[in-house]
Specification:
alpha/beta, 8 helices, binds adenosine-5'-diphosphate
Length: 262
């Protein structure tokens, strides 16, 4: 992992809050800032990144028998979903999953990366703990929706990262609000600013918010992350969050990513 300057874990307390959607779109947005970005889907029980990036095939091996990551939308990526048959459920116990992930991390030929984003499974189990402890992590980014039921699990995720001394770069509020194309009036389906208020209470950086937008879900299903469509409003939102993350990393350790904005 010597060629990887920064490793960022993307986690969530709950499943279904848009963690993988954010991990994919953030990776694409970071690559548009001229960084070399890798994305590893470690959501072993529900790998959705092959579908979200439109590559469901098995990877190729390099001459020295390493796994070559896929390259699309200017990022490199690999998912456990590309290594096991699509409809097969993973019924491994946690220690086996941890071993498989550690092996996978060693076996992928990433090349030089400014940032490796790791999409964690939801929650606070053995897999999250083991990756946090075994790797030299720059920090974590937590994704949540604004309602209290999600925030309860966010607090658990925050406590877990604190316990294993992983710095929390910040938190992103997903599905913040909805509005129709005709009507600019925002509807706060899950309450207003729950994550933002929580971040203030816990003294954690609020990195930004993504509304519930139909095209984000539709594009994910079609394997084209919205962040790759530069003119859309949604892609600009991901760019803003990506820039926020870069500046937080730059502040944190000066030998790492350096990026200049035009
Ligand atoms: P998680 O990784 O937390 O389980 P996913 O990223 O798989 O969640 O997202 C769950 C579903 O919600 C997917 O169908 C995804 O396309 C959709 N989704 C996520 N974020 C948004 C959003 N901001 N707007 C619209 N749909 C979204």
């Amino acid at each position: 992992m010597k060629n990887i300057k920064n490793i960022i874990l993307v986690g969530s307390g709950k499943g279904g809050v848009g963690k993988s959607t954010i991990a994919v779109n953030l990776s694409v947005a970071l690559a548009q800032e001229k960084l070399n970005v890798g994305l590893l889907d470690a959501d072993i029980y529900g790998p959705s990144i092959p579908k979200m990036l439109g590559i469901m095939t098995k990877p190729k091996a390099s001459d020295n028998k390493k796994i070559l990551p896929f390259e699309k939308f200017k990022i490199k990526f690999m998912s456990i979903g590309n290594l096991i048959p699509q409809d097969k459920a993973v019924v491994w116990r946690a220690p086996m999953v941890v071993r498989a992930l550690n092996q996978l991390l060693q076996d992928i030929e990433w090349g030089e990366l400014d940032i490796l984003i790791i999409d964690l499974p939801p929650g606070t189990g053995d897999i999250q703990l083991s990756l946090s402890q075994n790797l030299n992590i720059t920090g974590s980014v937590i994704v949540s929706t604004p309602q209290e039921i999600a925030l309860v699990d966010v607090r658990r995720a925050i406590n877990m990262f604190k316990k294993v001394n992983v710095d929390i770069i910040g938190i992103i509020q997903n599905m913040s609000y909805f509005h129709s194309d005709e009507d600019e009036k925002k509807i706060y389906l899950f309450g207003k600013d729950g994550v933002k208020k929580e971040s203030e209470k816990l003294n954690i950086n609020f990195l930004g918010e993504i509304p519930l937008i139909e095209e984000i879900g539709r594009n994910s299903d079609q394997g084209i992350p919205i962040a790759s469509l530069l003119k859309t409003k949604s892609s600009k939102k991901f760019t803003a969050i990506a820039r926020n993350i870069i500046s937080k990393i730059n502040n944190k350790n000066d030998q790492n990513v350096k990026i200049e904005f035009e």
